[in-house]
Amino acid sequence: IREHAQLLNSHIGKVVRLTADGAPAPGNPFAGRAGADPAIWSLGHRNIQGLAYDPIRQTVWATEHGSLGGDEINRIQAAENFGWPVASRTRDYVTGEPVSPTQSRPDMVDPVLLWETAVAPSGLIVYDGAAFPEWRGDLFSGSLRSLDVRRIQLDAAGKIIGETGLRIGQRVRDVRQGPDGFLYVLTDEKAGRLIRFSPSATPTTAPPGR
Predict the structure, then answer these.
(1) How far apart are CA 148 and CA 203, in angstroms?
(2) How far is residue 161's CA from residue 153's CA, in Å, rounded to a whole number?
(3) What is the pLDDT of residues 2-13, one digit of tens each?
(4) What is the dihedral of CA 170, 90, 37, 105, to 10 degrees?
């Protein structure tokens, strides 16, 4: 089924761009091409977990699972091919062998950030609040495997200049910015937690199971 990520008549492995009523958005890059679905915006994705609009740089970011290693952050652009499974840095779950002998191709987009060891990224935001001015413009990605929130520091042009882990200790399913500018983290556990990061020194935590 993975080969469908390269087919323009399938939604598998794609980002689609729609109007509010669910129709293909005007200006989509493959509209009018014979055999192509007009809703497709980009292709070659394996498993997007987080998708966030960047109001500062006016672009879209995505976190994506590899299989065994090779998790990614990508900057989504119209008509671009992000490689899966033709060009990939991940390994097959069953055999442990590389999915593809090719890791990169000039006609496909390399990830902006690659985690060789899986972190299992989840929800994603671009922080643009006032509560943490030093975080403004940075990406925050949850992690299901490394049990933290990854702060991905970006410069004004969107180049990665640093990465920091905010330790949570549970599988992080989602990260959101509240209207108060605080950071909210939801864990994915039987006794999960909702954690609020505020400008105080210690994050506040809702009781388990709430």
Answers:
(1) 14
(2) 6
(3) 999 999 999 999
(4) 140
pLDDT in tens, 119-134: 999 999 999 999 999 9
* pTM (2 d.p.): 0.90
Burial class, 79, CB count within 10 angstroms (exposed 0-12 / middle 13-18 / buried 19+)? exposed
**CB neighbour burial string for 22-41, b if at least 16 within 10 angstroms, e if fewer:** eebeeebbbeeeeebbbbbb
Q: Exposed, middle or buried by CB within 10 Å (0-12, 13-18, 19+), for 96?
A: exposed
Label residues 67-78 b or e (16+ Cβ within 10 Å = b): bbebbbbbbbee
Cβ–Cβ < 8 Å for 124, 52: yes
